[in-house]
């Protein structure tokens, strides 16, 4: 009897010691259900190059992802490697101490990443980096090239030309813009997708320096112009039109333009493979004004600080930061990879990547989602009021500034 | 004192009672108590920091912007409760009476009225979202076809109509439930009483107010109390039709959505605060428990034992 126990114990001990050497199973969590096939392909490539490490890809519903992830991490059942959000969404998870800090020692490729991309995945307080940023998104105007050609339109160089183009489409019986604002977050997209060039880089710099706030005339006049354009050239009853309906209006070819993120390009192609798309940054008032797109970073790949397979997890994250992966990511998922040196087969993506060189950050997400009320929640509700005729651009500037003063230091006095 | 032995009957009782008791303790009592406990701490994301006493309760009730969010959501819940009291329970009573009186087609309608209750809330929400679509929705298209263009609205997009539109969807979905409960109550009224009434009066009105209504009081107690609890826990329909933010600008925001946003965050705010969320949950729980208890005892008192 005693012998059996001893043997069993020895065997168990041997297994426990050998297990990590024999195979390391990593779990990898994501909110991109639609990208499952692509990720499984990437993982296969990784596993082939790294025998002994296996990765299981698991996806969760996007809107509740942060909740699910934080709950799992708090309960000690989190994944080894995971997608995390950027900016305020990252801080939520990172400040609780669940994520492993990443440095150029552990992930050397990070040294070449662009600073704004790294900032999106860092915690502001200590500037520590917690994730490898994976994609950038750009807010701009997407248009149906066939409809533009049929109506003899070119990409507008000034705000007046944009209005004129919309009028031409309207006269031809085409809905100029497909956008609707019943879905709250679409209001933010429309505002900064159309308004970034009107607000201008100088406004952004002064806002960040603390010398301007949202009551600034450059900001409020941009909101006024966006509102005028929407009232005239968005679909009838656009304030009651939700996001999926707006997407379908555009992809079905009923509308000429769609103000939205570069992430829409793949969706439109999937909804209607025949549609031909073009992109342009919404112009400023004069042709010589900088044409700015709103740029932000989507999220990153992070390592669980409590992972029992941390070494393997770091190896995997190094792969996710490699140019080889970035290239595959850009080619398969049609997203703008943040990894330097990646080239784009898809001419539209190449163009978006080009436009990103002249950009300001997607304002509320990048800087004003760190406290309650967040700038995004405020601008979404206020723009809905403006579109419904229940407020003015000046009142919005006032509401944003006083609302954010609850936690944003530069506005406090 | 009889000795309790773990044999025979005693064993049976123990075996049958322990699993459900354990279940209730683990999945109902424990979460409620822990929510109470969470509400007294400061949180950073999901990390528990210091004990802060009643600070979280103070914040959600008296500190901006939470104060106006709380008031707005609570106000909307009250509107929902009274509107549904009329649309769902009132209509339910009338439908039940019509079915009970066996008007022509009663057999068909008895099933038709209850059918929507069986549908999943998600289906009902998407169905009505399509109905209210500003461009292609049945409501607007019909209005335009019969020449009432000026009545066509972006129903879910303006603050004046959004909440009402969702309430109508809810009433359509659930009206079968009070109907069924009232109908059951009416069918329990003894025929001698009804015969006696017939000797006295021909008036349907007198019959409803003096006889039927008092005698279905137990049914009323049930549907009123359930409606109250349901209206203040309302979540699914506004979540799907208005979104987590109570779009447009908070006009469809209710306590359920507001609690969810505060505790778990949403994509647009990125903030999660378990302390404030739990404080809200505790307040909602206490409010519902107290008022529901009052409603139940009050309504019980007027029930008549036959």
From TrEMBL, chain A:
<keyword id="KW-0813">Transport</keyword>
<dbReference type="Pfam" id="PF01547">
    <property type="entry name" value="SBP_bac_1"/>
</dbReference>
<dbReference type="InterPro" id="IPR050490">
    <property type="entry name" value="Bact_solute-bd_prot1"/>
</dbReference>
<dbReference type="GO" id="GO:0042597">
    <property type="term" value="C:periplasmic space"/>
</dbReference>
<keyword id="KW-0732">Signal</keyword>
<protein>
    <submittedName>
        <fullName>Extracellular solute-binding protein</fullName>
    </submittedName>
</protein>
<keyword id="KW-0574">Periplasm</keyword>
<comment type="similarity">
    <text>Belongs to the bacterial solute-binding protein 1 family.</text>
</comment>
<feature type="signal peptide">
    <location>
        <begin position="1"/>
        <end position="23"/>
    </location>
</feature>
<dbReference type="InterPro" id="IPR006059">
    <property type="entry name" value="SBP"/>
</dbReference>
TrEMBL record, chain B:
<keyword id="KW-0812">Transmembrane</keyword>
<dbReference type="InterPro" id="IPR035906">
    <property type="entry name" value="MetI-like_sf"/>
</dbReference>
<dbReference type="GO" id="GO:0005886">
    <property type="term" value="C:plasma membrane"/>
</dbReference>
<dbReference type="Pfam" id="PF00528">
    <property type="entry name" value="BPD_transp_1"/>
</dbReference>
<keyword id="KW-0472">Membrane</keyword>
<dbReference type="InterPro" id="IPR000515">
    <property type="entry name" value="MetI-like"/>
</dbReference>
<feature type="transmembrane region" description="Helical">
    <location>
        <begin position="274"/>
        <end position="295"/>
    </location>
</feature>
<dbReference type="GO" id="GO:0055085">
    <property type="term" value="P:transmembrane transport"/>
</dbReference>
<keyword id="KW-1133">Transmembrane helix</keyword>
<feature type="transmembrane region" description="Helical">
    <location>
        <begin position="78"/>
        <end position="100"/>
    </location>
</feature>
<dbReference type="InterPro" id="IPR050809">
    <property type="entry name" value="UgpAE/MalFG_permease"/>
</dbReference>
<feature type="domain" description="ABC transmembrane type-1">
    <location>
        <begin position="74"/>
        <end position="295"/>
    </location>
</feature>
<keyword id="KW-0813">Transport</keyword>
<feature type="transmembrane region" description="Helical">
    <location>
        <begin position="162"/>
        <end position="184"/>
    </location>
</feature>
<feature type="transmembrane region" description="Helical">
    <location>
        <begin position="211"/>
        <end position="235"/>
    </location>
</feature>
<comment type="similarity">
    <text>Belongs to the binding-protein-dependent transport system permease family.</text>
</comment>
<keyword id="KW-1003">Cell membrane</keyword>
<feature type="transmembrane region" description="Helical">
    <location>
        <begin position="12"/>
        <end position="41"/>
    </location>
</feature>
<feature type="transmembrane region" description="Helical">
    <location>
        <begin position="112"/>
        <end position="132"/>
    </location>
</feature>
<protein>
    <submittedName>
        <fullName>Sugar ABC transporter permease</fullName>
    </submittedName>
</protein>
């Amino acid at each position: 009897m005693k012998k059996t126990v001893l043997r069993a114990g020895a065997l168990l001990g041997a297994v426990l010691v050998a297990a990590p050497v024999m195979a390391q199973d990593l779990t990898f969590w994501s909110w991109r259900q639609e990208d499952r096939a692509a990720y499984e392909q990437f993982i296969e490539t990784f596993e082939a190059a790294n025998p002994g490490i296996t990765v299981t890809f698991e996806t969760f519903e996007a809107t509740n992802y942060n909740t699910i992830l934080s709950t799992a991490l708090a309960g000690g059942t989190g994944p080894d490697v995971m997608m995390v959000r950027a900016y305020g969404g990252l801080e939520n998870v990172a400040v609780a101490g669940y994520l492993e800090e990443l440095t150029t020692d552990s992930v050397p490729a990070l040294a070449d990443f662009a600073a704004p991309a790294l900032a999106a995945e860092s915690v502001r307080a200590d500037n520590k980096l917690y994730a490898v940023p994976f994609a950038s998104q750009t807010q701009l105007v997407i248009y149906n090239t066939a409809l533009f050609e049929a109506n003899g339109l070119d990409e507008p160089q000034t705000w007046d030309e944009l209005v004129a183009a919309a009028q031409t489409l309207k006269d031809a019986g085409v809905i100029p813009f497909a956008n609707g604002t019943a879905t709250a977050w679409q209001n933010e997209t429309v505002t900064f997708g159309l308004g970034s060039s009107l607000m201008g880089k100088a406004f952004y710099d002064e806002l960040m320096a603390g010398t301007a706030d949202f009551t600034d005339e450059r900001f409020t006049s941009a909101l006024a112009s966006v509102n005028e354009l929407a009232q005239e050239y968005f679909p009838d009853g656009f304030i009651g039109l939700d996001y999926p309906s707006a997407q379908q209006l555009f992809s079905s070819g009923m509308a000429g333009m769609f103000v939205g993120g570069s992430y829409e390009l793949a969706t439109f192609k999937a909804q209607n493979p025949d549609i031909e798309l073009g992109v342009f940054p919404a112009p400023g008032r004069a042709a010589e004004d900088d044409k700015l797109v709103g740029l932000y970073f989507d999220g990153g790949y992070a390592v669980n600080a409590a992972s029992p397979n941390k070494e393997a997890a770091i190896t995997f994250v190094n792969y996710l930061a490699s140019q080889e992966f970035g290239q595959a990511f850009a080619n398969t998922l049609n997203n703008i990879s943040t990894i330097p040196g990646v080239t784009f087969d898809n001419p539209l993506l190449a163009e978006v990547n080009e436009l990103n060189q002249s950009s300001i950050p997607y304002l509320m997400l990048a800087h004003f989602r760190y406290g309650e009320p967040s700038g995004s929640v405020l601008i979404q509700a206020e723009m809905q009021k403006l579109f419904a005729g229940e407020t003015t651009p000046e009142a919005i500037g006032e509401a944003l500034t006083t609302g954010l003063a609850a936690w944003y230091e530069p506005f406090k006095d | 004192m009889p000795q309790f032995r773990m044999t025979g009957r005693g064993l049976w009782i123990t075996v049958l009672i322990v699993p459900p008791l354990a279940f209730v303790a683990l999945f109902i009592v424990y979460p409620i108590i822990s929510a109470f406990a969470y509400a007294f701490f400061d949180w950073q994301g999901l990390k528990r920091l210091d004990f802060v006493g009643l600070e979280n309760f103070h914040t959600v009730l008296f500190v901006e912007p939470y104060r106006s969010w709380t008031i707005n959501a609570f106000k909307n819940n009250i509107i929902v409760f009274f509107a549904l009291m009329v649309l769902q329970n009132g209509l339910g009573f009338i439908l039940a009476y019509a079915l009970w009186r066996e008007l022509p087609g009663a057999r068909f309608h008895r099933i038709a009225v209850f059918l929507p209750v069986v549908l999943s809330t998600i289906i009902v929400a998407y169905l009505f979202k399509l109905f209210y679509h500003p461009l292609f929705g049945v409501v607007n298209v019909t209005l335009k076809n019969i020449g009432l263009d000026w009545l066509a609205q972006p129903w879910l997009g303006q603050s004046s109509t959004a909440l009402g539109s969702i309430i109508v969807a809810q009433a359509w979905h659930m009206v079968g439930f009070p109907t069924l409960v009232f109908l059951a109550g009416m069918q329990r009224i003894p025929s001698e009483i009804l015969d006696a009434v017939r000797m006295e009066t021909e008036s349907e009105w007198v019959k409803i107010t003096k006889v039927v209504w008092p005698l279905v009081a137990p049914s009323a107690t049930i549907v009123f109390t359930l409606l109250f609890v349901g209206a203040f826990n309302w979540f699914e329909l506004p979540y799907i039709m208005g979104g987590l933010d109570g779009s447009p600008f908070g006009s469809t925001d209710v306590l359920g959505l507001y609690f969810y946003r505060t505790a778990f965050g949403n994509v647009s705010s990125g903030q999660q605060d378990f302390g404030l969320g739990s404080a809200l949950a505790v307040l909602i729980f206490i409010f519902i428990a107290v008022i529901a208890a009052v409603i139940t005892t009050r309504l019980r008192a007027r029930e008549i034992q036959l």
